[in-house]
Amino acid sequence: MKDFLAVGDYTPEALQDMLDLAIELKQEYKTKGSNSPVLKDKKLGMIFQKPSLRTRVSFERGMEHLGGSAMYIGPAEIGLGKRESIADVARVMSGYVDAIMARVFDHQHVLELAKWSSVPVINGLSDYNHPCQAMADILTILEEFGTLKGINVTYVGDGNNVSLSLMHVCAKLGAHFTIANPPGFGMPDSGIAVAQEFAAKSGSQIRLLTDPHEAVAGADVIYTDTWTSMGQEEEATKREVVFPPYQVNQKLVSEASPRVIVLHCLPAHRNHEITDEVADGPHSRLFPQAHNRMHAQKAILVRLMAG
Ligand code: CP
Ligand code: NVA
Description:
With 307 residues, the protein is an alpha/beta fold. It has helices spanning 12-32, 54-65, 86-94, 107-116, 131-145, 161-173, 189-202, 212-216, 236-242, 250-254, 276-279, 286-305; strands spanning 43-48, 69-73, 99-103, 121-123, 152-156, 176-180, 206-209, 221-224, 261-264. The strands form 2 sheets. A 5-stranded parallel β-sheet has the order 7-6-5-8-9. Strands 2-1-3-4 form a 4-stranded parallel β-sheet, sandwiched between helices. Residues 125, 160-162, 225-226, 229-230, 265 line the site of norvaline.
């Protein structure tokens, strides 16, 4: 596999291999303060059409840990598909860097980059999915419970890029996945159909609900994300009216399994989709989850770029 564009492109075995490697690299980094320089002299070019904290910094540090380096190219540069065609950008970049990470608006744009690039392309979030986030999420769940089989993961909120990749990784690896979203704010049917195919093979159960209380009963993981994703800003006022019943607050958390952990990809809009009490409370794993971005992505980088 040349690229990392969607978790669904990988077999469960390949995903598990990357998770095992992420755990190994995390352990190695913790004990030695560094990793073996398997990406020595390699350069990751990072194209951002949208802002970022975690994706930018975790990839940059991850490359440094592995002996390589990363180059940040911000939204004001390149003009992907506007100043220059995506096919041309991909072919030019391929001569300068050893892999490309791209955060885009339109999912087709990251697919197009991958099509024309001769070096690996990593999807750092599109309007459709966020596969690097899903790898960090599932690593965090695995670390907490020691297994994914039979774990109940419940996402409460908008059916967006983050929930889609989370659903796909759960369906691939055998965790049960439930979403509760307001009517009309669910995930695309095509993405759900694919998840159901994965689930039929892994034994995962997928539930698509609109009642957050029904959804969190028995949940081992409650996950939420912003009600308004980057690029949807003009819908923010409407969304602030529809989404408050889907807030992850102490009452909702108390309806889940006593061992429940709470996740959020961040950035959090505190006291909108998640209360301070929950984000900073005993069930929260928000910051270990954010830190796991770096470890999960190092495994992806090694698998795509080493050797
Ligand atoms: N979760 C995530 O992707 O964060 P950034 O937008 O800060 O990269
Ligand atoms: N769904 C959010 C995730 C941010 C990391 C967005 O696309 O803005």
